[in-house]
Write a structure and sequence with these properties.
By secondary structure, this protein is mainly alpha-helical. Among the domains are: 115 residues, Up-down Bundle (Methane Monooxygenase Hydroxylase, Chain G, domain 1), CATH 1.20.58; 41 residues. The protein contains four helices and no strands. Helix 2 packs antiparallel against helix 3. The longest helix is centred in the last third of the chain and has 109 residues. The protein starts with a helix and ends with a helix.
Amino acid sequence: MDPGKYVADLIRQDVVKHQLQVNALIQDIQQCSGPLELLDELNADGRGKIATLKSSIEQLASIAETEPNEDKKSELLAAVDSYKKQLNSSLVAFRKANIVSACAIDKLARENLFSMPEDQQNALRKRRDKQSLANTSSKVTDKLLSIARQLADTTQRSADTLDTLLTSSDKVGGTKGELEHQQQVILQSGKLLGKYGRREVTDKALLALAFAFFLACVFYILQKRLF
């Protein structure tokens, strides 16, 4: 059996399975009568299943692009196109089901509220106001904690940068000291070379005088013997 065809068949089975799961979840959302927390849970589950379905379709499309057989490639690409259309239809149905269910839950909540005695309505409104304030306070606290963490991170980075600058400054200071030491060594070497140069000139002058004296002596001796 062709391994490529086997893998493609498995992915197509996964696509069909995930598509059925998405359709079933859309029906659950359509039938959801509350509360909103349950609708939120169904939404989160639906987004996860849709993402999985989309990933499977993309895997099948990747296999289709690398299929060497043109007939099989055309068949796979046609299947991918069909699955993408089904996915788009499911996305539209998913959004529509959410809107309809949210409106129905809100309408039911309003009807229940208005059917209550006035004192219960006031108590419920106060409870909701307190809950809203608590949620707002919690969000503000989380935001402040996030800002505090960011400031702490920034402070730590600044401290690390300062340590790096101090270390670099110490290295620069050490390099400066080494350069000054090398400069002194070079100056001393220059003085020694100058001293040796002057001594060499003196030695050459003495050697020239000695040679001249030697020539004078030779000339004097020759003159005495010849004349």
